[in-house]
Amino acid sequence: MARVLVIEDERDLQQVLAYNLRKEGYEVLQAVDGLEGLRTAKVHRPDMILLDLMLPDLPGTEVCKGLKADVTTRDIPVLMLTAKGEEIDRVLGFELGAEDYVVKPFSVRELLLRIQAILRRAHGAKPSNPEDALIFGRLRIDTAAHRVWVDDLEVQLTSIEFRLLVMLYERRNRVQSRASLLEDVWGLQADTETRTVDTHVKRLREKLGAAEAYIETVRGVGYRFAASPDEVHA
Amino acid sequence: MARVLVIEDERDLQQVLAYNLRKEGYEVLQAVDGLEGLRTAKVHRPDMILLDLMLPDLPGTEVCKGLKADVTTRDIPVLMLTAKGEEIDRVLGFELGAEDYVVKPFSVRELLLRIQAILRRAHGAKPSNPEDALIFGRLRIDTAAHRVWVDDLEVQLTSIEFRLLVMLYERRNRVQSRASLLEDVWGLQADTETRTVDTHVKRLREKLGAAEAYIETVRGVGYRFAASPDEVHA
DNA sequence: TCCCAACTGTCTCCATTCCGAAAGGATAAT
DNA sequence: ATTATCCTTTCGGAATGGAGACAGTTGGGA
């Protein structure tokens, strides 16, 4: 799930936000002033940032400038929390490249929707090229279109199978335990004695046919996507 | 670079827009009410116009009519800025002929994308009319006229249906979640527990008849417009 | 002003697909 | 050979999306 950094000095609000974000399944990073926020952003690279405009050390505008000035954080969308609906704040926020803003007091629901929208846009906009599918040996994956091909023949995967494949691929050459797959693909956290993952891996392999060998079993640990297409042994 | 006329009375928003447009390399003309907007449009012939629906002297709809009534400004695409809940239906149809609209508060990023899309279309179809229509297999879409044909037979779509179709088409071969469609077509931010999108897709498909197969359902994810007219599965 | 037609969003119902669990068979490790 | 681990098959319940119906709105015309 997505990681959200909350830069907010009011303790109570910080708690409320963190609680609600976690409840929605986000991973939450917290910072209570601008400098800490900048540091955390640079180190942890969150998927987006909630930024209070009024902070004890730096004004939020400066934090925003700081974020935009650094290549590693430049592209992280910022959602501004402004104390009053002053137009000036809005202007500054946008000028500085904030993605959106909400005015306090805001409803948590509204805020969550904005966050969702931003993350959706960020994800959707990532592969802007028309035909940029991942290619791995005989396997081709187009995440934007949600389509998969093996040897130029399209394979119909269900959404879970697709997520499982992408997750394995993104972390190729690293063993994924069943528990971590359950968490990342299913969004569950259960210390599991279930064979659910096995079942889906099996179905996925079936559908992948010739490309099934890319998914390797690591006995006693979990599953691993091959490091390179050639490494697969017959 | 393209010239954009911004007709907007709120000073701050005017500034935000101008700043961001210039940053993107556009030349910006500004007007703070409808009459000034009409004059400026006639004199300077911008490549497109951002028009607030709520202006001090004239409603934006009237400005739009005025633009369409004058030969020198008739072909300039108009992008409407509307507040939430304002009637947007009539804005789009034949009546007013606006090219697109965004609902306030909008993210500047989103707005810039829309502007890009409009200018791209406009440039591609320089000699304004005859081949202004997009062709996709048996489907023909004329965004300027808001008309659609299937196998050379015109299909009557409502404004939402049209917008939905265009949105899907412009992002073809990319799955659109229901939530993102709700946001981009309806201008709503909502947890999608609703079947509204499904219903409209269904109605759209009905009307498209033979071309309905271009709109594909991706179970558990959303909808996707086919990548190419031939790829449609039986 | 009133009425009618068109449009839109929501609801319910239903067929289909999909998921997760269970259980027994197969395979690798010791 | 024995055990631990993984694969395979099967099946009922749940989720998903489409079809149809309906009421609230809106705009246009009588």
Brief account:
2 copies of one chain form a homodimer. The first copy, chain A, has 234 residues and is of the alpha/beta class. Chain A contains 8 helices and 12 strands.
Give short descriptive properties of this protein:
elongated; alpha/beta; 2 domains; homodimer; 4-stranded antiparallel beta sheet; DNA-binding
Overall description:
Two copies of one chain form a homodimer. The first copy, chain A, is an alpha/beta fold and 234 residues long. Helix content of chain A is 41%, strand content 21%. Chain A is built from eight helices and twelve strands. The first copy, chain A, has a five-stranded parallel beta sheet with strand order 2-1-3-4-5, with helices on both faces. In chain A, strand 11 and strand 12 form a beta hairpin. In chain A, helix 6 packs across helix 7 and helix 6 packs across helix 8. Chain A is elongated. Chain A starts with a strand and ends in a 9-residue tail after the last strand. About 2% of the residues of chain A have low confidence.
The rounded Rg of chain A comes to 21 Å
Lateral arrangement of strands in the main beta sheet of chain A: 2-1-3-4-5
Stretches with pLDDT under 50, minimum 5 residues of chain A = 126-130
Beta strands of chain A, count = 12
Mean pLDDT of chain A: 84
Supply the helix-strand structural class of chain A. alpha/beta
Beta-strand content estimate of chain A: 15-25%
Enumerate how many helices of chain A there are, as a single number.
8
List the helices and strands of chain A in order: EHEHEHEHEHEEEEHEHHEE
CATH architecture verdict of the largest domain in chain A: 3-Layer(aba) Sandwich
- Assembly level: homodimer
